[in-house]
Amino acid sequence: MDARLLADELARAFASRQTITPPSVRDAAFDLTTAYAVERELVRMRRDLGRKTVGRKVGFANKAVWRVMKLDTLVWASMYDDTVQFASGGRATLSIAKMIAPKIEPEIVFKLKTAVGGDSAEAVLAATEWVALGFEIIDAPYPDWKFQPVDFVAADGLHAALLVGEPRVVTPDAIPTLAEQLPKFKVKLSRNGELVEEGSGRNSLRSPALCVAELASAIARRGDQEPLSAGELISTGTLTESQLMTPGETWTAEVEGIELAPVTVTLI
Predict the structure, then answer these.
(1) Could you read off the pLDDT of 92-139 as tens digits, one per residue?
(2) Closest to 261 in 3D by CA, of 125, 184, 169, 195
(3) DSSP single-letter state for residue 141
(4) Which DSSP string do the residues of 88-137 spell out, in sequence order?
(5) Residue 181: CA atoms inside 13 Å, Cβ hemisphere, count?
(6) How far apart are CA 245 and CA 189, in angstroms?
(7) The domain spanning residue 262 has which CATH number?
(8) N or C: which end of the chain has fewer CB within 10 A?
């Protein structure tokens, strides 16, 4: 399957709000190497339009599904300067009018200040400028949200937007406490003031910090990827089940057991 042609097809599907048959259904030999080649083509297309990559988002950050999905690590894709928005005062408004069937995911976002120099939570936090609670908005160009990990990667990780709440600067003296809290904290996801679901930091590869470590390691093992670098934003995978959303709704995520500000988005 030609990576450039498939990237063009996926870009047109997103732009026209149309679904397409997943590549894995059309070609049983479609693999992660080809999927990442497609993702790189989408990056090239966005850069040719003047956009900049600002970080990565991860998917399948749950080891329990790796064997079922025939994965040996998580997967990832790029985020862009026009898809990342910071929530002023913890609140944001987002238009989803041009999306196909968007879903919302509460996630922990890291901003790196250096390359990641180890595989422990403490090493990741030492390389981190700040952490924040945020919302990853995903959108699938596949019917009924049915796809395989290779289809996820090829479609730029289904990334539509990232909303970042108030950052918390990671100081050296806070690293031991954060390393202990990140696996244990609880998150509550509400729609229009009503609780929809609860989750935990453990849902992101046992800890969002360990998720970043695994991402850095997985990228390094591939020869076709740009390594994680200073300044990148990393969205570390959903803490709850992804939830479909519609215009007019207001979604809020708030945490217990870690000092991170809540984040709220109103959809238009």
Answers:
(1) 999 999 999 999 999 999 999 999 989 999 999 999 999 999 999 999
(2) 169
(3) S
(4) BTTEEEE--TT-SS-EEEEEEEEEESS----SSHHHHHHTEEEEEEEEEE
(5) 17
(6) 13
(7) 3.90.850.10
(8) C
